[in-house]
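Recap slide: NDR1/HIN1-like protein 1, sequence and predicted structure.
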Amino acid sequence: MSTKDCGHHEHERRHLLRHVLAGIIAFIVLILLIIFLIWIILRPSKPHFVVQDATIYTFNLSSTTEPSLSFNTLTLTMQITLSAHNPNDRIGIYYHNLNLYASYRSQQISLATAIPDAYQGHKDFTVWSPFLYGNAVPVSPFVLGSLQQDQSAGAALVNVKVNGRVKWKVGTWISGRYHIYVNCPVYIRFAGDRDNAIGVVAPAVKFQLLQSCSVDV
């Protein structure tokens, strides 16, 4: 084969390669354009979460001092009413593997409670009423001091947090799973004499809150 023939074939290969690369780039641009148009049309929005109320059955801190040993434990029993709203007109939301727990001063103070999986249609609401339990949860000395300060102020902030997965549904198409993180502030008012036991709330105190939560997806 002559040098001229080799150069001709090399030119054809390069020409074909350029066409293939141009086709791949055009395909990627087309897919991105379709995704952008779908986003513009659908305008997807994160779900909105609200804590409607909270019933506190137990919330107290116990301090134990023994020879060469001192520790604090927090006991919590509470029930919350948590609602989720899908604000989208054309997108449904699947909730999967949702777990809810209580946190005080960035320290988890209850076991995780599983929330049933659910599907939300367009503009729908879903309401859950889970219990949260924390029995003699060890807490740091910092929590003891903070709770004493909150008791003097007459109220404490407990964060109710939700971790799980969501999927989006548009027509018959269902997306992959995305992580969802929800943080709901719950303000608890202390009952009775603030100078008595540390962090005691009278049994079955119900607070109407309607407190909005922050949502990250």
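Residues 98 and 115 are 5 Å apart (CA to CA).
The chain is about 25% helix and 50% strand.
(End of recap.)
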